[in-house]
Specification:
With 162 residues, the protein is an alpha+beta fold. The protein contains four helices and eleven strands. The protein has a three-stranded antiparallel beta sheet. A three-stranded antiparallel beta sheet has the order 4-5-6. A three-stranded antiparallel beta sheet has the order 9-10-11, with helices on one face. A hairpin with a 6-residue loop joins strand 9 and strand 10 (118-124). 19% of the residues are buried.
Length: 162
């Protein structure tokens, strides 16, 4: 039996969650399923195998699994179908928030230690692209936002969760 068919046999979907249709090994029918992993993603168990909940939900409705899935709002626990979209690895990366170790606190902007200016760079087609050096952090941020919108399109994330 395919995983798609097995998901439909075992679960019902409601508001971003899967619920058991039938009792399995002491877990009653109607119980919400999903455990949080250390990564922040939820997983479910199907026939003894761990499956990421967002991937199971996407498969449940679409009948296929893309290589990568993106949570549009960046919330790893928001598995509403409308929040899940197929993505490439690069697109998924474009939609990440700012890294915790960022000195500027802003995405795609780092301090050039030699000049003391803010440098704007981002990846385009897997290659780093340079957008300039700026004394003013606010100007650097505006340039970074414009570059992300132009090159990352619908996957552009300006560093915060929506």
């Amino acid at each position: 039996m395919s995983l798609y068919n097995r998901l439909h046999e075992l679960f019902e979907y409601s508001d971003g969650w899967l619920f058991r249709k039938i009792s399995v090994r002491g877990a009653p029918a109607g119980k919400r399923v999903g455990n949080r992993q250390s990564s922040g993603y939820l997983h479910i168990i199907v026939d003894g195998k761990k499956i990421l909940a967002h991937r199971a939900i996407f498969l449940f409705f679409n009948g296929y699994l893309p290589e990568f899935l993106d949570h549009i709002d960046g919330d790893k626990e928001n598995n509403l179908l409308a929040n899940l979209r197929p993505a490439t690895k690069a697109q998924n990366g474009h939609n990440r928030k700012v890294f915790k170790n960022s000195k500027s606190g802003l995405k795609n902007i780092k301090l050039d230690e030699k000049s003391g200016n803010w440098m704007v760079t981002l990846r385009v087609n897997k290659k780093p692209m340079y957008f300039g050096m700026f004394k003013d952090l606010e100007l650097a941020e505006l340039v970074a936002i414009e570059a992300r919108e132009k090159f990352h399109g619908e996957f552009a994330n300006h560093g915060v969760l929506a």
